[in-house]
Automatic annotation (TrEMBL), chain B:
InterPro entries documented for this protein: CO_DH_flav_C, CO_DH_flav_C_dom_sf, Diverse_Substr_Oxidored, FAD-bd_PCMH, FAD-bd_PCMH-like_sf, FAD-bd_PCMH_sub1, FAD-bd_PCMH_sub2, Mopterin_DH_FAD-bd
Stretches assigned to the FAD-binding PCMH-type domain: 1-182
Protein name: Carbon monoxide dehydrogenase
Signal sequence interval, chain numbering: none
Superkingdom, natural source: Bacteria
Protein's UniProt keywords contain tRNA processing: no
Keyword set, alphabetical order: FAD, Flavoprotein, Oxidoreductase
Database matches in Pfam families: FAD_binding_5
Biological source species: Paramylibacter ulvae
């Protein structure tokens, strides 16, 4: 089978993408379509005293100008956060109201106060500029530490001191006791920089209200159209679910930012009803910087204790997580259950305690972004481990090896139960490939050329395949995180897979077809993947958290099990054999040990003509399944980064990046390598290039590509990507997930390498040339003293 | 974009008169700076006067130095570059590369291929972005800017960030300068925009005059650096450039680098420019 599991099948979707034939939301044109432009606050914090839209309304081509009072007046609900987090003292989180269009107060630059609907995008934009909003500006706070300080501006009335929650996990007293009696203590302040997600396709929505049927259709850039429909219906009261169709067509990347249901989609739907026009909105790049949920933004203090044999005895972590001006859909879960549950890393640590304060600030809402909490956790763990090795004077690989979890299952003190892995094997594979042994020689050679060479490790672990529904429910999730699938065998034997997962770059049309090819011995071209339309596909939970393989494909496998059982029954009946002797291979149903067989399409035809099927059997061949995972999956690996720094300018060049990952079963190595390459570029971007910068007034100083640096092809090296896998026992295919690992594992490897090169451990991300140069100056000043 | 009226100018004089006819009119050359600012509603010219097709404004000419005395020394040719000559055409002019590789190399590193194929020298210097490359070259080469009404020396032309000596209704036709005996450019790009964080152009004329200009770093645009000029005048070597103590006063601090970092880069880029020369 050349197209089954493990085959490098070229991506079926790429023909349309690379020939420019993809169909994205903005490509969709409805008759009588109008355009929305939002009037956005130029202030980070202000009371809205009045809105004068008369000039806009007088402009030719303007259909209407709508505001938040009208929106709430029509019963449109506030935007919700879907995960309730409980504070240490047992109180629920303090969530402030978020209306799609602000009424009394704006809380970040970009907060929408009104929307103009017009005949063209240009008129809408011009008219929006002519809307006069009377703002009474208020003091602003942008950082989480500052927002928690006494006397900080109060952003939401019901979150005193801007504190949303003060949450904890782990065993506090034993951890403190272990640290108190530890032989060595390593203590660090660690900042995880704020990132803008920057998917290639900006967000977009086109909503159509059909008055005669009292029905809405929304095309939108979503990673989970079914969840979008549920939330739009149940919480925002746009329409009941059966009166609302949500379609996420081709979507050009999401990285988490397209999980959430934003003010703009809600407003387009409502405005379509108000104006009886189809209403389209497409974000421009500046709007994307101003309104797409940002990622990361943690300020952390961590303390790790070791005994005299260099075994970790305890870890205590405090993190202040900046959640921005409003609580986005998963904003509470990202810095808590998706973060602190990984603070045991790959290590056997008896005592871990973390507390996290979620904080309101006058900035763009912060939510899950590729990796979601796990990059922040791996950054803390792996910076701590490397620093510990330096302080203890031992080899960083040795220190890790000594502390690895070696037996599975392994229960950590922070909820997670690791099911499988072989961390030492990944480390060895990466060290061999990176020629770790030869590093000192290379360092000496580089020094002769005036360059500072450094090497850094990152042994990350993460939790994917989210998630067991009952478990996440008990932790506060408002939804279950199972997945659904339907396998439809057509009368001619071709197959449609309807999946609740959503592909926005992951290649599902290819990999999902491959597991069908593997199972039934059919060519992948006979298999079509249908996703992204609530009218076509049963309810599903969408794609994020590297869940589409481990959870989404498991649902397909479950449905295929049912199809297979029925096919065997039909085969046994028609071929007059015992069901136990029926095998399916090479696109045929065969009787073992004989030459009797039915071709696959003959089985389809038999099922649908129903002329000759077992008595009592329902005609047709279509099965569905819901799959709820029993555990998270735990991809892990070892990344080694080697850099050279030019001490004159602080420019860092990544000479070599080696990644050894354990993803469990790999369906399509080419696609997996692509996911790792992209993830590494994103992680290197975070480590060396990207960072959202606010001024004290809450204005973004980095809201365009002139100032926000995305990594480019010539910024990243040729990667060495390899696998060393253990099968995941938790799902039928043994998969762990690969979508986020690169972004999770790489930042600490990069920073560990640079700090090794420059001899100064005090370096924040992004490690730009100027930051590295400043750290070098600091180091030489300290050396002089 | 706001609505605007488009004109196709027939020649330089026509462009100047169209430009003078409305206070809100603007010349459109490559459009690489002007069009993005219009799209962002940061500029709203009433009229756009397109000069891109005008033959007399485009191209490079190199006039050989008159024969006098010893002829072995490099440089001295009179180079004229038309205002609408694209960065690509400058970068790929082999004759120009033979007499002044520093300027062809500079043009080859402006922006990306799309920008280089559309963007023009005239547009770059008229805009005088504080991080643009050409202003540094023209200042260090002691160029003359020829407009529809006069000739202006580079020293007088660049009057501060985004500001030039151009009057209303004045159109740049070309620039000219004498090929240097030796010149080099060291550019340190801002990681995001890849404009110059610091660009240092060093030039030594055939008479031995040394001029050093710095772009990207000044808090009021391109400027000449007296300390580097003095050091390189007495000793044209990278060691001499490296020995200059570059102060941070008057330098820009922004999210990409503070004044101290830029001061450091001026020294390093000057050294590398001399090495490259
Ligand atoms: C992505 C990107 C990267 C870039 N990177 C760099 C870089 O690294 N280094 C660098 O130096 N530049 C860079 N640029 C700017 C580029 O060089 C532009 O081409 C240049 O600044 C403007 O030239 P233009 O011909 O496009 O001018 P236009 O955009 O057409 O005009 C710019 C201004 O000059 C005026 N003008 C144009 N021609 C004349 C004339 N003959 N007489 C009088 N006024 C005139 C116009 O009215 C306008 O005000 C970059 C631009 C982009 C978009």
């Amino acid at each position: 089978m050349t197209e089954g599991i493990g085959a490098r099948v070229l991506r079926k979707e790429d023909k349309r993408f690379i020939t420019g034939k993809g169909r994205y939301t903005d490509d969709i044109i409805e008759p009588n379509q109008a355009y929305a432009a939002f009037v956005r606050s130029p202030h980070a914090h202000a009371n809205v005293k009045g809105i004068d839209a008369s000039a806009a309304l007088a402009m030719e081509g303007v259909v209407d100008v709508l505001n938040g009072h009208q929106l709430t007046g029509d019963g449109i609900g506030n935007i919700i956060c879907g995960w309730g987090v409980t504070s240490k003292d047992g109180t629920p989180m303090n969530m402030g109201a978020w209306s799609a269009l602000a009424t009394e107060k704006v809380r970040y630059v970009g907060d929408a106060v009104a929307v103009v609907i017009a005949d063209s995008a240009e008129i809408a934009k011009l008219a929006a500029e002519s809307v006069v909003v009377d703002y009474e500006t208020l003091p602003v706070v942008v950082g989480s530490v500052e927002a928690l300080a006494d006397g900080a501006p109060q952003i939401h009335e019901n979150a005193p001191g801007n504190l949303i929650f003060d949450w904890e996990i782990g065993n506090k007293e034993p951890t403190d006791a272990a640290l108190a009696s530890a032989e060595h203590i390593v203590e660090m302040d660690i900042v995880n920089n704020r990132l803008a997600p920057n998917p290639m396709e900006p967000r977009s929505a086109i909503a159509t209200f059909n008055e005669s049927e009292d029905h809405y259709t929304l095309y939108t850039t979503s990673q989970n159209p079914h969840v979008a429909r549920l939330v739009l219906s149940a919480f925002y009261n746009v329409a009941p679910e059966h009166k609302l169709r949500v379609i996420a067509p081709d979507v050009g990347g999401g990285f988490g930012s397209k999980i959430y249901i934003y003010p703009e989609e809600i407003t387009c739907l409502w405005a379509s009803m108000k104006t009886n026009r189809s209403v389209k909105w497409t974000s421009d790049r500046t709007e994307a910087f101003l309104t797409d949920a940002h990622g990361r933004d943690h300020v952390t203090h961590a303390k790790m204790g070791f005994d005299k044999n260099h075994k970790i005895v305890g870890l205590r972590v405090n993190t202040k997580a900046n959640l921005g001006a409003y609580m986005s859909l998963f904003s509470s879960a990202t810095p808590t259950y998706l973060y602190a549950t990984l603070l045991s890393g790959q290590y056997n640590i008896e005592n871990v305690y973390a507390d996290v304060q979620g904080v309101y600030t006058n900035t763009v809402p912060v939510d899950a972004y590729r990796g979601a909490g796990r990059p922040e956790a791996s950054f803390v763990m792996e910076r701590m481990m490397e620093t510990a090795a330096r302080q203890l004077g031992v080899d960083p690989a040795e220190l890790r090896l000594k502390n690895f979890v070696k037996e599975f299952p392994h229960q950590t003190p922070v909820i997670m139960a690791y099911d499988s892995g072989d961390f030492a094997a990944n480390q060895k594979q990466a060290m061999d490939a990176a020629d770790y042994k030869g590093f000192e020689k290379r360092r000496t050679e580089a020094a002769k050329r005036g360059k500072l060479r450094g090497i850094g490790f990152s042994n990350y672990i993460e939790a994917c395949g989210i998630a067991p529904s009952a478990a996440v429910g008990s932790l506060g999730a408002g939804v279950g995180l199972w997945e659904s699938a339907e396998v439809r065998v057509n009368p001619v034997g071709t197959i449609e897979i309807l999946t609740g997962s959503h592909s926005h770059g992951q290649g599902h049309e290819t990999t999902f077809a491959q597991i069908v090819a593997e199972r039934f011995g059919l060519p992948t071209e006979n298999v079509a993947i249908v996703h992204g339309d609530t009218d076509k596909v049963q309810f599903g939970m969408g794609t994020y958290g590297s869940r589409s393989g481990a959870v989404g494909m498991s649902a397909i496998v479950k449905a295929m099990d049912k199809v297979e059982a029925k096919v065997k029954k039909i085969g046994a009946h028609v071929l007059e054999a015992s069901e136990d002797d029926i095998i399916i291979e090479d696109g045929a149903v065969k009787v073992k040990g004989t030459d009797k067989q039915m071709l696959w399409h003959e089985v389809g035809l038999a099922a649908y003509t129903a002329h000759n099927i077992p008595e009592g059997m329902e005609p047709g061949l279509k099965e569905s399944a819901f799959y709820d995972p029993s555990n998270f999956t735990f991809p892990a690996g070892c990344y080694i980064c080697e850099v050279e720094v030019d001490p004159e300018t602080g420019v860092t060049k990544i000479i070599q990046f080696t990644a050894s990952d354990d993803f469990g079963t790999i369906i399509n190595p080419m696609i997996v390598e692509g996911q790792v390459h992209g993830g590494l570029a994103q992680g290197i971007g975070q480590a060396m290039f990207e960072g959202v910068v606010y001024d004290p007034d809450g204005q973004q100083l980095s809201a365009s590509y002139m100032d926000y640096c995305m990594p480019r092809a010539d910024d990243v090296p040729m990667y060495q990507v390899m696998h060393q896998s253990t099968e995941c026992p938790g799902n039928p295919l043994g998969m762990k997930g690969c979508g986020e690992a690169g972004a999770i594992g790489s930042p600490p490897a990069v920073i560990n390498a640079i700090t090794d090169a420059i001899g100064n451990n005090n370096l924040n991300m992004p490690a730009t040339p100027s930051a590295v140069w400043a750290a070098l100056q600091e180091a030489s000043k300290q050396a002089a003293e | 974009m706001y609505t605007t009226k488009y004109h196709k100018a027939s020649d330089a004089a026509n462009a100047a008169s169209l430009l003078g006819a409305s206070p809100e009119a603007k010349i459109l050359a490559g459009g690489q700076t002007l069009i993005p600012t219009m799209k962002q509603h940061l500029a709203a010219p009433s009229d756009l006067i397109d000069i891109s097709g005008i033959a007399e404004l485009s191209g490079v000419t190199i006039e050989q130095r008159k024969k006098l005395g010893v002829l072995k020394a490099k440089g001295g040719e009179t180079i004229t570059i038309g205002a609408t000559t694209t960065h690509y055409d400058v970068a790929n002019n082999a004759d120009l590369a033979a007499v002044c590789p520093a300027i062809t190399g500079l043009a080859a590193n402006i922006g990306d291929p799309a920008v280089r194929h559309r963007g023009t020298l005239g547009g770059s210097i008229a805009n005088n972005d504080p991080a643009a490359d050409y202003p540094a070259a023209l200042l260090a080469l002691g160029a003359t800017i020829h407009t529809t009404s006069r000739d202006i020396s580079a020293d007088d032309f660049f009057t501060g960030m985004f500001s030039t000596a151009l009057n209303e209704g004045e159109v740049i036709k070309s620039v000219s300068f004498q090929a240097p005996a030796n010149a080099g450019y060291g550019k340190f790009p801002v990681p995001a925009s890849r404009y110059a964080m610091v660009g240092v152009f060093v030039a030594k004329s055939i008479d031995g005059d040394v001029r050093v200009s710095v772009t990207g770093a000044g808090d009021d645009g391109v400027f000449r650096h007296a300390g580097l000029e003095a050091a390189l005048s007495s000793d044209w070597s990278s060691a001499s450039a490296a020995g200059v103590n570059v102060g941070a006063e008057g330098l820009l601090s922004d999210i990409h680098g503070n004044a101290a970092y830029r001061a450091n880069l001026i020294g390093v880029m000057a050294k590398r420019a001399v090495d490259a020369a």
